Structures are given as C-alpha cells and as structure tokens.
From TrEMBL:
It comes from the Bacteria. This is Crotonase. GO terms for molecular function: catalytic activity. It comes from Paenibacillus apis. Pfam families: ECH_1.
Amino acid sequence: MEERRMIGPTKFEEYSEKYKEFLLMTRRDGIIEVRLHTDGGPYKHNWEAHTAWSHAWSDIGRDPENEVMIISGTGDKWVIGDPEVWNTKFMDWPKQKKLEQYHESLRLLENLIFCIDIPTIGAVNGPGTHCELATLCDITICTEDADFFDPHYLGGTPPGDGMLLTLQNMIGFKKAAYYAYTGKNINGQTALDLGIVSEVLPREQLLPRAWELAEMIMQAPRSTRHLSHSIISRPWKQALVSDQGFQLAHQMYDMAIDEEGVLERLKKMQGRLIGKDVQ
C-alpha cells in the first residue's frame, strides 16, 4: 500500500518571513506577538497588507507551537489611513478585482476568528482606524490616546466592513449608530467606560502588560486555554455568520455604483475629517 504524504502546518520561520513586509512576528515560550507595520514604523494602510493578514491568521492558527497571540501596532499609531488607496474609483475596478476584494474583506475577520483556536490579546498602541482587529481579540487593552471610530459614513460609504459590526456587539445598537453617523472618536477612557477595552495604559506599559497577561493565560493547561477561547470567541463567530456578509455586501454595492468615488468625496469633506485617519 502506497504511503500517504501528510501535509503539515507551515513553520514559524517560514510564515514570519513570508509576511514580514506587513507583520513583524516574534515568539517566546508559545506566545506569538504580531505587530502591524510599514517599513518598521506605524502601519500605513495598503491593499497588499489587507490581503496578507487573512493568510497570516490561517498560518498562525495552524501552527501548534502558538499558544497565545498578541496583536499590536508599531510606534505611536495603530493604523494610518491612506485615502490614496482609492485613487481608482471602486466603480472602475475590474469585476474580478471587486470579487476578490469582497472575499478578502470577509476572510480578514473570518480567519482571525475561525482559524485561530488560542487565546488572543489586542493591544491598541495609539490612534487609527480598523481597531476591529484588536477588539475581536479575547482581551483588548489600549493606550490613553487610542481612538476608536468608524469613518465610513463621513466619507460617504456604508459602514459594512467590520468596524460597525464590532461596535454594535460591544456597546449596543443605539450607541453604535450614533458613532457610525457622527464618526465621533471614542478615546481610551471612553472605550474603557463603554466596555470596548479592559485596561488603558501609558504606551510604554502597553506591550509589557500584554505579555504579562499572555504569561498569566499560559499558566492554565493547554486544553483549558483552547476550550476557554472557543467559549469566549463564540459570540463573535455568531455575529460574523449572521451579519458580516450582509453588511459588507451593502457597503460594496454602494461603492460599486458610486460615480464620484471615495477619494474625491474625502477631499471635499477634508475639513470635517481633520484628525481622522481614514482608509
């Protein structure tokens, strides 16, 4: 009988190298730290990284050597938005690229939740959009100057790519609607008061505290860690299955029929968006 060749998980040395342009990874005693970055500094949004994240979550989740994951940013910003990514109107994207964008946007969050079976800690290291990557984690901590906001509606686009979804499930539909329509910032202390984060810390204490929490989590037996994460992350799985595809389809349909385009609208609304890092 012919021996079957088993396909195993990708090794840390391989995938940490593969994604190093977008994610800097370190691992110690089963704890993997993943930092968003651009050229070693704060992450500036781009579509290549947007695609890479979903693949990275899959590789990280399939590696049995990973026991707790920390997601953070680099420097003093979580994410720097770049409106220039919309230099070509979405309406003018090729049909295949639109379809790919839909699937990649779904997988970005789905793979984070469905492919990773270990406890997760989000450490928001400063202001910036797309904090849902951190708020979807089991524990979320942030700096005092962090802000949480969804800029889509202010930019003339339905809020459907995950930011509003996470706010709806954390702070309630009424409060989430207010922050979606106004684009108002939720600072670190307000995020703590609303239940979005569990701790607010000075920036220099953020990552050490994330590691302290991870090391505490590591004290429990492996099965306890994995199955506790399964229980804790289940509400997010239910929310993604129920609403993510619905919300994203609405956003992308509106973008596909938008003749003006996001970039032109953002330029006109620049005064209202001062201080906002928008994608």
